[in-house]
Design goal:
The complex is a heterodimer. By secondary structure, chain A is α+β, with helices and mostly antiparallel strands. Chain A has two domains: about 80 residues, Ubiquitin-like (UB roll) (Roll); about 150 residues, Alpha-Beta Plaits, CATH 3.30.70. Helices cover about 25% and strands about 15% of the residues of chain A. Chain B is of the alpha+beta class. Chain B has two domains: about 70 residues; about 80 residues, Glutaredoxin, CATH 3.40.30. Chain B has eight helices and four strands, in the order H-H-H-H-H-E-H-H-E-E-E-H. Chain B has a four-stranded mixed beta sheet, with helices on one face. Chain B is elongated and about 55 Å long. Classes of the chains: A alpha+beta, B alpha+beta.
């Protein structure tokens, strides 16, 4: 393991060579927005909110899966990046039926928070208004496809942390959906342990606890770095 | 790990086709990365993948059921419902698309009252779309009951499907 030095947004920083730009930036108080990334889960680079510019490279790189290099000059917040991020958010809003005012996660939602921070005041692409069902068959939780952004945090936490792998993604493109077991009702899933990890890592109101009304579904994610630490200590 | 987890599930029924599926899995040493090959065998043997088959494969290869379903629903090749007695696969690749494949598809869909990717209510015809046959010189192309037909127009297409039905009846 060796130490590498780089520049992020004009600030000289350093990190181990197995660290990603996202990790080093966060350690140094530089906030790179992300939706699919969550500390404690394997990064997948799916949402593209964390794209960064690297000097000398024409293309944008996702910070969550880009390892640091010696002498890298990274820009995380240029006008171009801001514009792209706004577009990504607009596309996410247009893809399903995200209606914050009646959502259980109103005020506690990563998507809503990022939209507010990036000044998304309207959506300039046509809404698709897909017909998405709500699965309330589980005794304690609800799955609302209307709010899902397919970040796969639930899939990863269920597989990597809980070890049940109840969740996965079916289909492709616009028809992709998160599913439990053989695309069956969540309440009938034989592998689900009802641990609620998926509910709490979900960035939006797609997964929520029953009995929560509008704006009441606050998510608690403290358990994830803690669980990860405990496992590493015991290894 | 309990002994229970190590035992393989029993064949779902006495149907001999399950033995073919099991033979494929054995050939691959029941490795979880043989999932796609095994699903190919199931599809060839049964014509489609149903819940029983996916559960059996998931249990035998020790893969989570949701992952099996994810793979089965991702690839166009796999179908989750029984196919119709006859099939019409319309190529929607770029060359075919430019040459009017969308019109062909719409015409068949309207004539037989079936949505692309589905089978008519009487189980007669499955209308399927494909990404690209690699026969772009034949654009627009379709595969009707396993026979490739190229440079089609709407009238040709409907005629060929009808011919196939008559041949079947004869």
């Amino acid at each position: 393991m060796s130490v590498k030095t780089l520049v992020i947004d004009g600030k000289d920083v350093s990190g181990n060579d197995n660290q990603t730009v996202m990790e080093v930036a966060r350690e140094n108080g530089i906030r790179i927005p992300a939706l699919c990334h969550l500390d404690g889960l394997t990064p997948v680079g799916a949402c593209r909110m964390c794209v960064i510019e690297v000097k000398g490279l024409n293309k944008l790189l996702p910070a969550c899966v880009t390892r640091i290099e010696e002498g890298m000059e990274v820009s995380t917040n240029s006008d171009r990046l801001q514009r792209y991020r706004r577009t990504i958010l607009e596309l996410l809003f247009s893809e399903r039926n995200h209606i914050c005012s009646v959502c259980v996660s109103n005020g506690h939602c990563d998507l809503q928070g990022l939209a507010a921070r990036h000044g998304v005041t309207h959506v300039s692409v046509p809404y698709r208004y897909p017909s998405c069902p709500v699965d309330a068959t589980h005794s304690r939780f609800i799955l609302d496809h209307n709010r899902c952004i397919l970040c796969t945090r639930c899939v990863r936490v269920c597989d990597e942390v809980e070890g049940a792998h109840t969740w996965d993604v079916m289909g492709r493109g616009i028809e992709a959906r998160v599913i439990t077991d053989l695309n069956q009702q969540w309440g009938t899933s034989g592998s689900c342990t009802s641990c609620s990890k998926c509910v709490h890592v979900c960035p939006t109101g797609a997964l929520s606890e029953k009995g929560k009304s509008v704006a009441e579904m606050a998510k608690h994610r403290e358990f994830l770095p803690y669980l990860k630490q405990m496992r590493e200590d015991h290894r | 790990m309990s002994a229970n987890l190590k035992t393989k599930p029993a064949l779902p029924s006495a149907d001999k086709r399950w033995k073919i599926v099991d033979a494929t899995m054995r050939r691959h040493g029941y490795r979880s990365d043989s999932l796609i090959e095994v699903l190919h065998t199931v599809q060839e043997a049964f014509g489609y993948l149903d819940e029983v088959a996916m559960k059996f494969v998931a249990g035998s290869l020790r893969i989570p059921p949701s992952k099996v379903y994810g793979v089965a629903s991702f690839y166009q090749f796999f179908t989750l419902r029984p196919p119709g007695r006859r099939t019409c696969v319309v190529c929607m690749g770029t060359a075919c698309y430019i040459k009017g494949a969308a019109n062909l598809l719409a015409a068949v869909a309207e004539h037989y009252n079936v949505k692309p990717g589905e089978t008519t209510a009487d189980g007669e015809l499955s209308l399927i779309t494909a990404r690209c046959f690699g026969s772009c010189g034949l654009a627009p192309a379709a595969v009707i009951d396993g026979n490739v037909a190229g440079k089609l127009n709407v009238a040709d297409m409907l005629e060929r499907i009808k011919e196939g039905a008559q041949n079947d009846a004869a």
